[in-house]
Write a structure and sequence with these properties.
The structure is a single chain. The chain is an alpha+beta fold. The chain has a single domain, classed as Alpha-Beta Plaits. It contains three helices and two strands, in the order αββαα. The protein has a two-stranded antiparallel sheet. The chain is elongated and about 45 Å long. The two termini are 20 Å apart.
Length: 91
Amino acid sequence: MLSHTLVDEKLIACANRFPVQSIYRWQDNIENEAEVMLTCKTLASNLDRVVSRVKELHSYDVPEIIALPILGGSKDYLDWVEENSSSKSGN
């Protein structure tokens, strides 16, 4: 599973999986598909590696990969994200 691999490789600290219904255009057709959206928590410094790894593992030709900034949050939680998505923390 993609999320498990990313956590195991310490590219991300956590992934949340959400079932979604997606309607989109692909190869001149309108598609309506049940999909799973992953929200991954990681460091900005890991973004290029996460993007590369998702592209390697994902079955789609063009998986949705976007990055949103973390503007703030619980220091304890943000420290945990840093500790668990960094190869410097013992991996």
